[in-house]
Amino acid sequence: GMDKTILSFLDQKTGAEGLKVTADSVTIEDLTIQDTNGDCIKLQDCTGVTLRRVRTTWTGGAKGSNGGYGLYPVACNNVLIEACEASYASDAGIYVGQSTNVVVRDCYAHHNVAGIEIENCVNSEVYNNRAEENTGGILVFDLPDLPVVNGHTTEVHHNTIIGNNHKNFAPKGNIVGIVPPGTGIILLAAKKVSIYENEIRDHKTFGTAIASYQMTQKPWENEEYDPFSYDITIRDNTYERKKALPDLSSDFGKMGNLVF
User: Fold this and answer.
1) What pLDDT is recorded for position 121?
2) In the prediction, which pLDDT does 260 show?
3) Per-residue model confidence (pLDDT) at position 251
4) CA–CA gap between residue 201 and residue 135 (Å, rounded)
5) pLDDT-based confidence at residue 248 (cuts at 50, 70, 90)
6) Radius of gyration from C-alpha coordinates of the chain
7) Tens digit of pLDDT for each residue in 184-228?
8) Residue 163 has pLDDT above 80, yes or no
9) Which DSSP string do the residues of the chain spell out, in sequence order?
10) Which of 10, 88, 143, 157 is deepest in the core (most CB within 10 A)?
11) Are 168 and 251 contacting, i.e. CB atoms less than 8 angstroms apart?
């Protein structure tokens, strides 16, 4: 169980990941991995991945020197992440990138820069999760100059996304450094995304933001890359917030402040 089986990498001298997997048909469950130099669990080029009741964290709190990702499947097929907990990642607590057929459900992401991030994926579903006290709750990004670009088809539904106003502690130059504290959901160059029946409360900057990659002011080389967000459906969500000033520590936050 997460509370009794704990793999600590606090004294790790070399290497990055706590656990790295490059095999197919992998199930990891009922344990905690903490205090790695880099990512807690990285799964790369795997088909058939299940992460269940796994906790990842850095016990020293929110620091830019923490590893980037808690749970990190990349370039995988058929990914299930359920009933997991991730905290204090300097990029994303739960991240799935360049993967196909992804489900993230019943998870708890807190005190990360990004709680849950889906990046350059095809056919993803994110539901029944709780994302709170991150800088940004849930991110759906599509970035250029990666082996897989123009990801599409993501459903984000029945999630509780509350009070994601944490200071952004991402290392300088990291793409999630653009996320302003006080963000519920950001769609960046995302395609075919449906956001419905979520509870999105108490964010001082954005409830849901839809943006082009051009907002980053960064160039790209891949001629096939499409920087725009389109085919977005947002319906039947609950938005609620108190009076608050948008974050002014990032250009994204400043832009929101100028607009509104």
Assistant:
1) 98
2) 72
3) 82
4) 14
5) confident
6) 17
7) 999 999 999 999 999 999 999 999 999 999 988 899 999 999 999
8) yes
9) -TTT-EEE-TT--S-S-SEEE--SSEEEEEEEEE--SS-SEEEES-EEEEEEEEEEE-TT-S-TTS-SEEEEEES-EEEEEES-EEE--SSEEEEEES-EEEEEES-EEESSSEEEEEES-EEEEEES-EEESSSEEEEEE--SSSSS-S-EEEEEES-EEE-------PPTT-GGGGPPSSEEEEEES-EEEEEES-EEE--SSEEEEEE-GGGG------TT-----EEEEEES-EEE--S-PPP-SSHHHHHHHHH-
10) 88
11) no
Decide: 75 and 81 in contact? Cβ < 8 Å: no
Task: Say if residues 89 and 116 touch (Cβ distance below 8 Å).
Answer: no
Report the half-sphere exposure of 127 (CA within 13 A, side-chain side): 12
Pick the closest to residue 89 from 134, 53, 139 (CA basis). Answer: 134
In this predicted structure, which of 20-24, 227-231, 252-256 has the lowest mean pLDDT?
252-256
Nearest to 80 by CA among 139, 41, 18, 125: 125
Is residue 91 left, alpha or beta, with left meaning phi > 0 and alpha meaning psi from -120 to 50?
Answer: alpha
DSSP lists the bridge partners of residue 155 as: 125, 194
